[in-house]
Design goal:
Layout (H helix, E strand, L loop, with lengths): L10 E3 H8 L10 H9 L9 E3 L2 E5 L3 H7 L16 H8 L1
Antiparallel strand pairs: 1-3, 2-3
């Protein structure tokens, strides 16, 4: 199912994209000018960027794909440890 194109709550203006990318990537987010130049030079797929009334926007749901298109390294999810049951905790305490 395609996202609703009229849903503007999902859109992030390009000047705020670096701030939104920070928790998703390793290292520093790119500067606005670097990202704007990559978009202008068509280094980023057009379907990841929306041009509305003179401004570029990225959908929040496309941030990970946008970061990868910029060549940024996404953070790896932390390995999850299996939850210990209460029985094993009480047995180890005894």
């Amino acid at each position: 199912m395609k996202p609703d194109r009229n849903d503007t709550d999902d859109l992030i203006v390009l000047t705020r994209v670096a701030h939104a990318l920070a928790p998703l990537i390793d290292g520093e987010p790119p500067k606005y000018r670097h990202v704007a130049n990559r978009i202008a030079n068509a280094d980023v797929p057009a379907e990841l960027v929306e041009y509305i009334r003179g401004r570029n926007y990225v959908r929040r749901s496309n941030l990970a794909a946008f970061a990868q298109a910029l060549g940024l390294q996404l953070k790896q999810p932390a390995p999850t440890r299996p939850a210990r049951s209460r029985a094993s905790r009480s047995a180890s305490a005894a």
